[in-house]
Fold this sequence. Notes:
Blueprint: E1 5-15, E2 18-26, E3 28-44, E4 51-68, H1 73-80, E5 83-85, E6 91-97, E7 107-109, E8 120-123, E9 133-136, E10 141-144, E11 155-160, E12 165-167, E13 175-184, E14 190-201, E15 218-223, E16 240-243
Antiparallel strand pairs: 1-2, 1-13, 3-4, 4-15, 5-12, 6-11, 7-10, 8-11, 9-10, 13-14, 14-15, 14-16
Amino acid sequence: MFFQGRGNVHLAEVTDGVVGAYKLHICPDAYQIELTTDSFEHINKCGTADVADYRGTKASSGTLTMSFANVEDANYALAVLGTVTAAGTAGSVSNEALPDDLEIGDIWFLGGLERHRAITGLTIPGLTVNVDYTLDAASGKVTMLTDNANSPAMTASYGYTDPASVSMLTASTKEYAAMFENINKANENDAGSVELYRVRFDPASNMDYLSDELQIPQLTGSVLADTTKDSADLEFGQFGRRVL
C-alpha cells in the first residue's frame, strides 16, 4: 500500500487529561511527525576489537511540525500563543492629549499605543480637517499639514469602533489533542486518521509579514505521552496511532 495524504486537522484543548471540544479546524499545508528514541549501546571490550553487544532505549519522544496558510484569528492565536479579543462596541474619547512636538508630515495614531479605529466625529479644537491635518478614519491615522498647532497643547475628541484583534505571547502554553482526518489519494481516497493524544506547541516560526507569497506560519510541537493510557496497550499506545 502507498500513502499520499490530504486532510484537515482538528485540535481540542486537553486539561488535566480531559479532552474538550474540537474548536480549531485547520487545513494544513504540511503535517509531519518525527518519532525518536534516545538510545544507548554497551561496548564489549573483552576482545581485540571493541564491539557493540547491546542497545537499549532511555526514552521515546515525538515532534509534530505543522504549517497552514489560513491565518484567521483563532489560527493566528495558536501560532503566536495569543489571545483573541472580539470586535468592540462603539466608544468615545474626550480631550485625548496629542504630542506637543507635531510638525508638518508627522503622524499620530488616535489612542496612542492603544490605537482606535473606525473613527467618527473627530474634532481637534483650533484645527480644520484637510487644512491643518488629514484623517484616515479606518486606521485612526492623523497626518499633520501644518505645524502651528503646538501651542496651546492639542486635544482630540472622537468616536471609534475597534475591530477584533490578537495579542501576542499572552496565552499560557496549552496542550492539544490533534486529529488529522485524512484521505489516502494513493489508495482510492480511503479515509483514515492520525491521532495524537497530547501536543504542546512552541510559537510559530516563519511569520513573514513582507513576502511575495502567502504567509505560512510553521508550528513545531512536542508529542507527549498520555500516561493515563497503559504503556502495554498495543492498540492505542501512549503517544498516538494511525488508522486506515
